[in-house]
Design brief:
The protein is α+β, with helices and mostly antiparallel strands. The chain has 5 domains: 3-60 and 743-823, Jelly Rolls, CATH 2.60.120; 73-157 and 209-388, Alpha-Beta Barrel (TIM Barrel); 403-484, Immunoglobulin-like; 508-532 and 658-731, no CATH class; 534-655, Jelly Rolls (Sandwich), CATH 2.60.120. 18% of the residues lie in helices and 33% in strands. The chain contains 16 helices and 51 strands. The chain has an 8-stranded parallel β-sheet. Helix 3 runs parallel beside helix 4 (142-151), helix 6 (208-224) packs across helix 7 (248-259) and helix 12 (344-356) packs parallel to helix 13. It starts with a helix and ends in a 14-residue tail after the last strand.
Length: 826
């Protein structure tokens, strides 16, 4: 290896170091206290003994978020009522005025101020081919309705989709304020579908007239006083993610037009998360799932299953939302118990999920018919404040139906929700350590508006009802510490940062399969099979299903564990994130099945047929798509139904990386001997060894020397004959994720209030140095090089700071320049 190559590796490897930072702020006083509430001691840390006087160089800053979208919007949307009444023309002038007046009277003081009209408001075009309001629905003009809404102190929204209709294309209307441009000129040739429903043709945005056409519509909307546009059937998403439909050009064009006019831009529906950066660049919100409506006309607006399926979506999307752009869960249909299709507990749970996820809170009910329980839910001051704080919550785990979700707030407190998604009343415990909190904290019940006291290390919500919730504010007490993962909204990045990219090292468990026997008693142990293939059944909570999935048990067809998940709607999908080097999608082959599209890590792989010719027998447990030899790390499999009557999921077989050599062993009690195993990771990364959840005692049951682990014969001799799996548990990067940059000068930072802070990350052979700045001054250059990759290392720590507001930032710099402030800028 040349000297130049070694230097480059040192630079790029720093990515994993800064990326894996857990920023730990020591809370010296309860959150919310002002800087003058407590004394301001002089710093006493050795790390700040000789600070440099030069401040950090000015970082590259991201574009400022749209001023009108700094918080999730609150309001009302017409679509749920259009479905509920079975009348798409329900959105008359009288209805919209009635909804506006009802909102003004019942909800507006709590922050609800958008009146958004969905599909059906336009039924013709004007002389320039622009959508025009229905004369039947709005005989005095839509602007009169909009003026009424504005007079109520509210904002008004409308609905459009990508593309252009065949009629507008064929009639070649002149485009307003664009001499020589017509609506015929801007359609892509040959003609292509623009939307999910095949309503219109795709627009060719390489033609400058296309942007002028979009601008002309935006001008018209702005002239009417429109403040919001819902843009539906956006792809990739909306049931189509194979790029056979792609509305990203439409999204970019509309974004350009609407930003100039200060109009909120909302995308719909079920947007593909693999293009999240695009949606964040152009829009103020994006639907993350299919419609919340149950399409039970006259019976209900929604149903519990349509709420429950949002939890895995929220777990996927939470890190993508923030000031300027928000994850949209669709209408919040909780305002009237005779209409909603939900129990009171389910209504409160739905409201809580929207609130903690910072999802736009827009009601789908008839606002003239809200019940008191619904009004109380929607206007609870403390719950609405959680939503408007704009910090989306994340789950501790989605592998249970007793879920704890939390969000670290800018004031140092946590919002914590305890969700019971199960079928029985249950106690649910939030452990402070799972939140990144060490030390005592006070707890307030936000729905009850009641302080519950101070708790040392955890809080248990008792007997939470089926589909019920407790919503808490957890405030660390003096002397506590908060650990923030790299994904936390409070952690800021300047420069060219990306997330993961294969550089992350996840925590994982590798089984050592040991065959135990006694040859003197005729029980000769034989080498067991490798334990690196792990079966994930279709009912595993970590599989995220999108669409109207069902589960079938006891079919008797030879299914794995005698159950499958199934779905009928094309565009439905499932997604599973795994750690390992390979995965098999196992389903059945049958004449009722069709084609599915397979994606891995956001990239289309192939279309797979799961069907059989009519009359051929069903074949169970078939691996229809497999991949192996992947880089060890986190990967995401996504499969989308394309055709056929059904798509099924039976199980997924995950191949774990080989971290043990060998990964099987034999122990003969007649000839007892220690069992040595070589670790393929640094020995310091081995956290523990377990047997059926019980930890073996280090130094007694096993020993570690470098990368060699020795399982003592005295422990093995006490095991029952048969095969036992010893779980070797390895540490990983915090939350199994990192942020990465290869550009010198890029920084990661945190503003905090307290008396100390630590940076915790990884070290490895190909990492270099970084500069640490505290309150604008260079205080230390840290070297993150080590002989092997080691996670969870304290890279920098300081204590004894003045109790107050501080900021820490860490800058990636050249290997040859770190410590020389005069040349630290690339």
């Amino acid at each position: 290896m040349t000297r130049q190559t070694r230097a480059r590796r040192g630079l790029t490897a720093l990515v994993a170091t800064i990326a894996a930072l857990g920023l730990v702020a020591a809370a010296a006083a309860p959150a919310g206290a002002s800087p003058t509430d407590t004394p301001t001691p002089t710093p006493t840390s050795a790390a700040t003994a000789a600070p440099a006087t030069a401040p950090a160089s000015a970082p590259t800053t991201a574009p400022a978020p749209d001023a009108w979208a700094l918080k999730p919007y609150m309001g009302w949307s017409s679509y749920s009522m259009q479905v509920y009444t079975g009348n798409p023309k329900w959105i008359t002038a009288d209805q919209l005025i009635a909804q506006s007046d009802a909102m003004h009277a019942k909800l507006q003081k709590a922050g609800y101020n958008y009146i958004n009209v969905d599909s059906g408001w336009t039924d013709h075009v004007d002389a320039n081919g622009r959508p025009a309001p229905s004369d039947t629905l709005y005989p005095q003009g839509l602007k009169k309705v909009i003026d009424h809404v504005h007079a109520n102190g509210q904002k008004f929204g409308v609905y459009l989709i990508p593309g252009i209709s065949p009629d507008v294309y064929e009639k070649a209307y002149p485009i307003a304020n664009a001499p020589g441009c017509t609506t015929h000129d801007i359609v892509k040739q040959p003609l292509q579908q623009a939307d999910y429903w095949k309503i219109g043709y795709r627009i060719d945005f390489t033609n400058p007239c296309a942007q002028k056409y979009v601008d002309s519509i935006a001008d018209q909307l702005s002239a009417w006083g429109v403040n919001f546009l819902k843009f539906d059937s956006v792809t990739p998403g909306s049931g189509v993610s194979d790029l056979s439909l792609d509305a990203r050009d439409d999204v970019a064009a509309w974004s350009k037009a609407l930003k100039k006019r200060g109009i909120w831009f909302e995308l719909s529906w079920a947007l593909d998360i693999n293009y999240a950066d695009t949606w964040k660049q152009y829009a103020n919100g994006w639907r993350v799932e299919w419609d919340v409506e149950c399409y039970c006309a006259g019976v209900a607006l929604t149903q519990w299953d349509n709420i429950a399926r949002l939890f895995p979506r929220a777990a996927d999307w939470w890190r993508h939302a923030g000031p300027g752009g928000w994850n949209d869960f669709d209408s919040l249909d909780v305002g009237n118990g005779t209409m909603d299709g939900l129990t009171q507990d389910e209504r409160r749970t739905a409201t809580t999920l929207w609130a903690i996820s910072a999802a736009p809170m827009y009601v789908g009910n008839d606002l003239t018919k809200l019940d008191q329980f619904g009004v109380d839910l929607l206007t609870n001051r403390e719950v609405v404040a959680v939503n408007q704080t704009g910090t989306p919550a994340q789950p501790v785990s989605t592998s249970t139906d007793k879920q704890v979700w939390y969000a670290p707030n800018a004031d140092g407190s946590y919002t914590v929700a305890l969700f019971n998604l199960g079928r029985t009343d249950s106690d649910i415990t939030a452990n402070w350590s799972d939140l990144g909190l060490t030390g005592a904290a006070s707890v307030r019940d936000l729905w009850a508006g009641k302080d519950l006291g101070t708790f040392a290390s955890k809080f248990t919500g008792q007997t939470i009802p089926i589909h019920g919730v407790r919503l808490l504010k957890v405030t660390p007490q003096k002397g506590s510490t908060m650990a923030l993962n790299d994904d936390a909204q409070r952690v800021t990045y300047d420069g060219s940062w990306t997330r993961n990219g294969g550089n992350e090292v996840p925590a994982t468990t590798q089984p050592l399969q040991v065959a135990v026997g006694n040859s003197s008693a005729g029980q000769v142990p034989t080498p067991p099979a490798s334990g690196r293939i792990v079966a994930v059944n279709d009912d595993d909570p970590a599989i995220a299903y999108s669409g109207s999935w069902g589960q079938s048990r006891g079919r008797g067809f030879g299914d794995y564990k005698d159950d499958v998940h199934y779905v009928e709607g094309d565009g439905s999908s499932f997604q599973y994130t795994f750690t390992g080097t390979g995965i098999d999608y196992v389903t059945e082959l049958d004449e009722s099945q069709g084609d599915v599209d397979v994606y891995l890590d956001g990239q289309f792989q192939k279309t797979v047929s799961t069907g059989r010719d009519a009359g051929q027998p069903r074949q169970a447990q078939q691996a229809v798509w497999s991949v192996s030899d992947l880089p060890n790390g986190s990967h995401t499999l996504r499969v989308v139904k394309k055709s056929g009557s059904y798509m099924l999921v039976d199980k997924l077989d995950v191949t774990l990386a080989s971290l043990l050599q060998p990964d099987t062993a034999v122990f003969d009690k007649a000839k007892p001997a220690d069992v040595p195993v070589t670790l393929l990771r640094d020995g310091g990364e081995l956290a523990s060894i377990t047997n059926s959840g019980a930890a073996l005692k280090r130094g007694t049951d096993y020993s570690v020397s470098g990368t060699t682990v020795t399982i003592r014969s005295s422990y093995l001799a006490g095991l029952a004959d048969g095969t036992v799996a010893l779980g070797f548990q390895f540490r990983g990067d915090a939350h199994d994720d990192i942020h990465a940059t290869a550009k010198n000068g890029d920084t990661v930072g945190l503003a905090f209030r307290g008396t100390g802070v630590s940076c915790i990350g990884a070290t490895s052979p190909d990492q270099g140095k970084a500069e640490v700045y505290l309150d604008g001054k260079l205080v230390k250059t840290v070297d993150t090089h080590s002989d092997s990759r080691r996670t969870g290392q304290t890279l920098f720590s300081v204590s004894g700071l003045r109790d107050g507001d501080h900021r820490i930032s860490v800058k990636k710099c050249r290997v040859t320049c770190c410590g020389k402030t005069s040349s630290s800028t690339p």
